[in-house]
Amino acid sequence: MILTLTPNPSTDRTVALAGVLERGAVLRAESVTSQSGGKGVNISRAALAAGVPTIAVVPALQDDPFVVELLRDGIDCRPERPAGAVRVNLTLTEPDGTTTKVNTPGAVVTRQDLDRLASAVEERASQAAWVVLAGSLPPGAPDEWYAELVGALAGTDAKVAVDTSGAPLVALASGLEQHAPDLMKPNGEELASLTGGDAEAIEADPAAAAAAAAVLVSRRVGSVLATLGGSGAVLVTPSGAWHATPPPTTVVSTVGAGDSSLFGYLLGDLRGAEPAERLRLAVAYGSAAAGLPGTTIPTPAHTRPELVEVRELVLHTENRG
């Protein structure tokens, strides 16, 4: 079972533009869709579609339309009393797949709000093979809250994956010697910010990405899955490093592609797959998501893992971070 926590969920509204985005212009929309989302919620959606049991913990009222939609869709949603209304995030997609996002901050939380979420996760962690802590932290949350929660979950049998960015990611990385997750999933830019590398070089060069990821593994992170956009993804574990390239994909929307990649990796792990095959599934899911509109999360039928090429890398580590 995969237990997900989305501490700053959102109603994701996607506007598919008929043409190129122009500042100050009046634009025409081809369609507008809305979906209950957030990184952890997206992973729970993918799990449900793949037949993997999942529980999604979110701060929201039981009768909030956000929760009602998740329950209607079949997701085992466990809402905890929120600090305020669920935020709305806006995504603008252009015909060539270019994506522009406008994310709102969410309600300001107190320590009591965070303690309710942490307790909900800790109480259910014993049921889970993986606990996924995903997305931004709401205003008012200390940057180190994810790191604290990783430490609190260390006494359970569940593995912990963290997918976040900005200050919470930096805070997590600064305390890896004390509280290291079993899996981190940075993108190229985030990996560069943690290890002092050049973001463009890491995004374009799998060997550079692997060397940077190895720095985090050397600091007790179980595995690092680094997504590199069109360059695929790199996986580094204590036993080695691998790079996977995606199949030819017509990009429609990149929203949710990273979340889908993370789920693909977890699915491979739940199946007992070797690292290279976990990476293959991760890239298959990520590329499938990129080829779908809006925040559509792929099902197994959308994925083509047999078209993903995986090769082992020779690590040349440098002293970074």
Care to describe what's here?
This protein is of the alpha/beta class. It has a single domain (2-313), classed as UDP-N-acetylmuramoyl-L-alanine:D-glutamate ligase. The protein is built from ten helices and 14 strands. The strands form two sheets. A ten-stranded mixed beta sheet has the order 5-4-1-8-9-10-11-12-13-14, with helices on both faces. Strands 3-2-6-7 form a four-stranded mixed beta sheet. Helix 1 packs across helix 9 (257-270) and helix 9 (257-270) packs antiparallel against helix 10. The longest helix is centred in the last third of the chain and has 16 residues, at 275-290. It is globular, with a radius of gyration of 19 Å. It starts with a strand and ends in an 8-residue tail after the last strand.
Task: Detail the poorly predicted runs.
Answer: none
Question: Quaternary state, please?
Answer: single chain
Order of helices and strands: EEEHEHEEEHEHEHEHHHEEEHHE
Largest sheet: 10 strands, mixed
In short:
This protein is α/β, with parallel strands linked by helices and 321 residues long. It contains 10 helices and 14 strands. 33% of the residues lie in helices and 24% in strands.
